[in-house]
TrEMBL record:
Gene3D superfamilies: 2.70.98.10
Keywords: Carbohydrate metabolism, Isomerase, Signal
First and last residue of the signal peptide: 1-28
Reaction(s) the record says it catalyses: alpha-D-glucose = beta-D-glucose
Family stated for the protein in its record: Belongs to the aldose epimerase family.
PROSITE patterns in the record: TAT
Protein name: Aldose 1-epimerase
Amino acid sequence: MELNRRTLIAGAAAAGLTAAAAGGTAHASGGRKPVKELFGTLADGTKVYRWSLQNGGTRMKVLSYGGIVQSLEVPDRRGRYANVSLGFDNLDDYVASSPYFGALIGRYGNRIGKGRFTLDGTAYQLSVNDGENSLHGGAQGFDKRVWDVEPFTEGPDVGLRLYYTSADGEMGYPGTLKVKVTYTLTRNGDWRIDYRATTDKPTVVNLTSHVYWNLAGESSGTIYDHELSIEASRFTPVDKGLIPTGEPARVAGTPFDFRRAKPIGRDIRTAHQQLLYGKGFDHNWVLDKGITHRPELAATLRDPSSGRTLRISTNEPGLQFYSGNFLDGTLVGTGGNVYRQGDGLCLETQHFPDSPNQPSFPSTVLRPGETYRTTTVHSFGS
Ligand code: BGC
């Protein structure tokens, strides 16, 4: 049964439960102010804080390091909460060995081939950190930066504004990039991300969020039974280095067809060249809606066991679906258990990988005087 969040809270109230028992979040006039605590200290002495916020039945914890969502809790169909995002319980593990758990990604989500591109006749060499390519902004991307965090409550909304200024030339990218990312928890328990950036020189930008979802709860096993639908008739095939070949392909008749919801595990072991390259799904889907003024539905994820659902809407043209293929049993997660292949999946709203080298892809160029603006909304249900 589809039960939306308001029904759940109303139901909890009707059952005589207090707001605290229902998650402590049912505030008609808005949520509580986010709470800050020390999470750890970096080697250079910089303090890292953790912010806790909740609204409309969703609870989240966010670090000033990388803008990382360290935990995100939502109820199942019986109102039982679980943390549905993979992560660590300590700062050292995030610094030493995180595969981008929960992090903000910049300046460029996904790969740029050979870490090179040319803009207005000038060639740029980026930090190369994934074979010969640049991945997720290079060796010290936005996921490894300490952000200035400002909490807010505004009407029924609760949230955090995260600020980071990336210096001209950082990781090889041109232009001083001023970035503001707003995490909002709405009265319905939606998590909205608004990305803004400006530059003082022509540059390229592609920001995203790298939460690993497991709607049954982190450490509960693989996501192969989760049912996924993606609003896309095409995807961008890649070469063995996971760089798009440049020619979108139709999903029809392939394991990449998620136009109707299907379990992720159903076709993941098909001997399809693209699945061999990615060791599973690790591809960009070309959303049928294209770039939109407002966020529109991109994907729906459902865990049949708990009933939890996640709907992702965005104004971005692409969605990277990564089925956690490179998790290999070497990392110990928040709950003290080891993460293995497929224990979480990422749904990263974005422009397409390698766009700076692919003239037929939508442009990722940002120029002085323009403002980069994208929005992604995560809506939870059960
Ligand atoms: C990429 C994967 C990469 C992973 C890093 C994903 O966004 O598509 O190829 O391994 O991030 O954890």
